[in-house]
Specification:
homotrimer; five-stranded parallel β-sheet; globular
Chain lengths: 159, 159, 159
């Protein structure tokens, strides 16, 4: 992957704190790109980002135009029942057109390429999730202090 | 705290730009964890993040299911009067159950452990805040250039 | 600008993924402050952040109180037609009062000071944008892997 020996030392940690489609994919795309560049990648899922590794939710993430005027839909329309589902389906279709895989396949690709996937213990407790609720490729459940340890020397993104 | 001499050099700067409960606690938790690992911590509050250090608002931060489908509440319900208050109270209760202190106590703990707390001058002006509106543990009001100076060599998170 | 020779080596990369006024300006302000400190700056626009460099949208970014309880407006009011426009106009006025220029001028200042501006190829495709839809000062359209390459050794912010 990398022709540069120094890259072997480069580390990227991505904290995923949001569970919407439009905030899940940037983390997945960057993790994947980094791995393809030979960079060591760790993803840490916390708060709403837990949805990305929650077996029941990961392939059914949502998007809403509410609170996001960039989507160009008036709020008075955005609140109507069915609009979140419609916006979610539209965004999923756009992402498929770009040849990005669904969330579970994407995480599997990242894991297979050596990316580490960690769930936040505190968020597990807050959302009453158990290890068996999580996607099988998740490496471990860790606390914030452990995350600080493994992110030493890394570039860290908070998404 | 840290048994590792090198850790003394490690620095973490957290830019807090959001004022909701669910985006305030990740910064507080990470700051606290980093300090417990012997890492030098600076928090910089700007834009909506000013609410976290605003004496009148800090212990009354809110959460809303609107624009956040991860909370699992239909938008048509989310807009009803009282729903933001209800969602905020629920989230506060969940955070208490995890034994995290209220915002003012948490900031005090962080400050007592050596964490630095800075308010953004531009955001102060935009929100017409004075120094006396801020939590007493805030170290100083600084500009973006000063923040750039003190974040030299740090891992920087934008929340 | 910088009296410190070492600063010449310092790099800051800002990933702009959001297109609201209140999430566009923090990136612009930090980029500008970093350049004034002699730091090498790269801005990478992706997802909703494309609006910041979209000629038709950049000077008409919006803000909405929906999903942002920090703005202090009840959601039941926030959904009314015209409220997003009003909130956007109010925020624009506050930003002008602080003597910050409109988005196009701000990006031009950043570019003139040596800041690099890159659009994300994937986001271009997703939003059906062409090079001619982008602000003239944008240096290039690049992929996520190229972004990973040019952010080597940088402090990276995800906004």
């Amino acid at each position: 992957m990398s022709e540069n020996g120094n890259d072997a030392e480069r580390k990227l940690c991505i904290i995923c704190s949001k569970g919407t489609i439009d905030m899940a994919y940037p983390g997945l795309v960057l993790a994947n790109a980094a791995l393809m560049e030979g960079i060591d990648v760790t993803m840490f899922f916390t708060f709403w980002g837990m949805d990305i590794i929650n077996k029941k939710k990961m392939n059914n993430l949502k998007a809403t135009p509410l609170g996001n005027p960039s989507m160009g839909m008036p709020n008075i329309v955005g609140i109507l029942p069915g609009v979140t589902a419609m916006a979610s389906a539209m965004m999923k279709k756009e992402i498929e057109k770009l040849d990005f895989p669904p969330v579970d396949e994407f995480l599997e690709t990242i894991h297979d390429a050596g990316g580490k996937l960690y769930a936040c213990r505190m968020a597990m407790d807050m959302m009453k999730l158990k290890k068996e609720d999580l996607f099988s490729e998740v490496d471990d459940v860790i606390g914030a202090m452990e995350f600080m340890e493994l992110s030493e020397g890394a570039q860290v993104l908070f998404i």
